[in-house]
Design brief:
It is built from nine helices and 13 strands. It is an alpha/beta fold. Helix 3 crosses helix 9 and helix 6 crosses helix 7. Bound molecules: zinc ion. The site of zinc ion (ZN) has 6 residues, from loops.
Length: about 325
Amino acid sequence: MTTEYSDHLVIGMDVGGTGLKAAVIDRQGGVFIKEQRPTQRERGPEAVIASILDFAYDLAQRSRGPAGGGRVAAAGVAVPGLVDEETGVALTSVNLEWKNVPLRRLLEERLGVPAVIGHDVRTASIAEGLLGAARGSENYLFVTLGTGVGAAVVLGGSPYMGVHGAAGEFGHMVVQPGGPPCGCGRQGCIETLASASAVVRSYRAMTRAPADITTRDVAAQVIAGDAAAQRVWGEAIEALGIGIGNYVVLLDPERVVIGGGMADAGQMLFEPLITRLAKEVPFQPVPSLLPAALGNDAGYLGAALKAWLALGVSRSELNWREVV
Ligand SMILES: [Zn+2]
């Protein structure tokens, strides 16, 4: 282990639709500060960008050394939408109404240290790979089944970005031709059948269940023998089984890590999915299917890891044993 940066810190921040989550973390994974602020995106894109820069600057100021010197050596920020990680530009985010925001340059100007930005799910996949459910694996698929479906295709330890930063749109893979219409314009995308919101929406359309039910409630109804719940759940498992099966046929991964609201259903999701996947993969080895381990912490942890990697610290040195 080199002594370089041994007394330094980095900022890792995750920009979400409702909250900005951030932490200041040392090279051994020690968390110096951990904090959350509201995104308040209704204030408009400019105000959200200003809040991100203010938050990062504030964290850097509060992390100064005993002699008043700067200890923050870099910053990493994970953002939703389409991101060009090479140029550091957040290209588009429908949620935040962003278009071509040069976030890396803005952060570097404000903080006076190098910055990196990353796509939120790809960044979270780095944390799951070094610290979470994909630890020890370099070839895995990371999927989040929440309001939508996010994914990261991780090859050789790095999330694959594609030529335009748009790779990994697993949720828009068609698995049921002629199926439910998707916001993307296609029909029968995985997102329309297996996202947490799709499962709840389909179940409510069939049963008039209350608006505040979750995928866990639908899963409980499956166990209770409710026919509508069983049908919706079965369609979700089928969609995921076919989608993940296609991925396995193409890329032969070691693991598949699943997070988001659907993963909260635990064995109700994983057991039937493992059975289904075995049928969908005719001759390749079937990868391990695992629940994500880091939950909502994966974004800012991944952003901090990206910042350390950008400073030249090796992956093996970032194999943090404990993070809070
Ligand atoms: Zn779609």
